[in-house]
Amino acid sequence: MLDLDHFKRINDQFGHAGGDAVLQELVRRVRTRLRREDLIGRLGGEEFAILLPETEIDGALTALDLIRDMIAETPFLLPDGRQTPVTASIGVADLRADSGFAADTLEQLLKRADDALYAAKRGGRNRVIFDVGPSPFPTMVPKLDGGKATEI
Hints:
Layout: E1 2-4, H1 7-33, E2 39-44, E3 47-51, H2 57-73, E4 76-77, E5 83-84, E6 88-92, H3 106-122, E7 128-130, E8 142-145, E9 148-151
Helix pairs in contact: 1-2
């Protein structure tokens, strides 16, 4: 799950046409980093699901952190010629049955990815968080922040 950070500010400052331009450019940028078999789909507002089939979790985390970095490193051009910085928070969940934390349904997978996304938001935004499954310590999840694996 990918969600643009503070997207309401973009809509408020630049109008819905500016927000729409940012969303369209986001999808263009993300697609440049995806393989043919990968998918991106808008779930609503500024929230997107990215599916990376047949991808080990380490590879997925690396790919998604590169996407996060690519979004943040170059401001987005708006229809009126102005630019705005954009960052994204990303929550990751694993569907593979051998992962130990596999989801049984699409709804469970999306819920776990969404929970990880909100952990990324709570952790300071502009980061990738992997949902490690049920834990008595829900704030102790691995994250990628500037390319370094740490814990929050």
